[in-house]
Amino acid sequence: MGGSGESLARPPRRCSEPLIPPTWAETAESIAYDSATWPPPIALVCGPGNSGKSTFSRLLLNTLLKRYKRVGYLDTDVGQPEFATPGCVSLHIVDKHTPQGMHSCFFFGDVCAKKDPKAHLNYICTLYDYFLINYHQFEEVDDPGKAPVLPLVVNTSGWVKGTGYVTLVEMLRHMSPTHVVQIRVSPESKNLPSGKFWSDGNQNTPVNVIEIHGTGNDASVRSVSTKREARIMRDIRIISYFRQCLPRDFKISTYTELRRCLASVAPIGLHLSTIKIVHLHCQ
Predict the structure, then answer these.
(1) pLDDT tens across 155-180, in order?
(2) Fewer Cβ neighbours under 10 Å: the N or C end of the chain?
(3) 44 by DSSP, 3-state: which?
(4) Torsion of CA 31, 126, 89, 174, to 10 degrees
């Protein structure tokens, strides 16, 4: 994690807050406030890397929170998740703009889904099914004891070629989204096919496919600094996760201090019979 006195990783500096295009705001509003949408929307956001998927997903989440008290957020990006620790596929039930903790998650064990696409897809589908069973059952909507039906935002990774494309297609076929938001960039070769590219003719659920243009630099330009920033952000997320184990009054400014503080925490003892060992990404 660095040298003995190396300072903790800091977020990369940004020149300004991201600008939200009017078309993005209009799209989020149309999904959240479409009076014809019942049950509440299940919106999946997809597109190539660095196109703005996470930014739009967060915009859509905040827009939905204006109408609904709680919103589901399924994050399938193990490399750069919005709220979770890197290496996890996570489901969040959000009731405020900055959620605390994860509702349910699977530890994937890597920041790249290419390590085990089948396990990655299985985790995603399992969390989605869990959400449907617990938060999207609307047959007994008049039952006062029934939990309210929640909308869901599904944020996907930028891996949309080769096996990544196949995984996305299988994901969409398993789910029943009311909206699929596809973010498109330049050059065109980076983009997913237009329309219902995942459909094999067996999906009868109506879906609204919305195409919007990405923001920022050309997606064909992925500089070394951009990759470095992604690594720094992952380090910060992991540090923040383990920082929760320590008292708030601990002042930590270097990796050495963090390591020493973590080593000072009394470990929790568990019976060996309660532990299940799972080998990830076995060849």
Answers:
(1) 999 999 999 999 999 999 999 899 99
(2) C
(3) strand
(4) -50
